Amino acid sequence: MTEALTPDAPVISDVSGAAGQTPENPAAGGAPLSPEDVQAAVHAIADRSRKAARRMGQANRAWKDRALRAIGAALVENRKHVLEANAKDVAVGRANGTSAALLDRLTLTPARIDGLVAALENLAGLPDPVGNVVRGQTLPNGLRLRQVNVPMGVVAAIYEARPNVTVDIAGLALKSGNAVILRGGSAAANTNGALVQILREALDSVGLPADAVQSVDQYGREGANVLMRARGRVDVLIPRGGRELIQTVVANSSVPVIETGEGNVHIFIDESAGEEMAVDILLNAKTQRPSVCNTVETLLVHSGSTVLPAVAKALRAAGVTLHVDDRIAAALGAGVETVPADNEDWATEYMDLDLAVAMVDSLDDAVNHIRKWTTGHTEAILTNNLANAEKFIADIDSAAVIVNASTRFTDGGELGLGAEVGISTQKLHARGPMGLTELTTTKWIVQGEGQIRS
To answer: Do 424 and 398 contact (CB within 8 A), yes or no?
Structure first.
């Protein structure tokens, strides 16, 4: 694995881009790169991406699918190398006091690599969105119209401590005919470096441009800032991470941004919900993988429900800390350990084994609570009342609304999209899990026979 990640850019010794560090150029005696140098280097990367995007946009499905399968095979072949690189990142994170939730997102295991390979194979089996006819007609004047899906062009992603995102976003971008520029952050620097190298070599092995996958990690935070301002060179920017990262990108980017991520996710148990279903769903939604954005963070329980004691005991047995309001505390009594909740709990995306729990007296009260505190990601109702289910669906305005199932299903792979770039919580262009189609835009094709406008 000898190919340089960014062959035309200055060689950078600080690949981590950690806070307080400045990229250095050994060719200049170790002197820090100036902001102008970083800008020139990132712009050069973006320009190469745009050139690569033109080639990717012309690649047919078979060619792109060969690339995805080549990436999967390379991940299997280089599994040991990737895991060794990841172990270095995890060790540094643990030594720096990184939380258990962040360490979980950072960690790759053999099973998680197998999952990435399976996702790539699944992507290869999905239809190519490029060229899909969204709508078309022939006008009375004989003009033939088609609106078709075409690639975005250059897609950039800024994310943190999530090396699986490196593969997921690259795979989706490539299948949809785009080039991608990645900024994965210092916490996963070793892992992302290894993965980007594998991706680039796999592309080259099937005759597609290696520059369709590039990284600006070696330029640190200043590189990310330049990427956010590269309007005209980058077509769309997708931040994926916590609230601080997402809002920083939204506030500072001149490149169009698709907001993703932050998930203050709610489940409402109405008075008709059965105990067994409620226990199973809450355990899955909170404990299967608490560090991800579709994990439930707030539980609302109807005052007429009888399932609260069983649900609370099951959650406590699984190690979940319950942050409860006064009514929940009184209903549970001393038999279940709890801690008091306040307004900060209703607003918190814990991404850990913590759950805020409140009691409500009606479906309308549950909806009002959700409307006040939601981030627009995913909300669920557990009910055996069809009218309540339909009202909940109609009244809740989030990217995903779920009836009688775990919130963990708000996921690109689980919803048949192969993988996802992220879960959009905005309303423009894309909403919910963003798969292949969401990485395309449209183009109008108008064909005539000499018509002129009167």
So the answer is: no
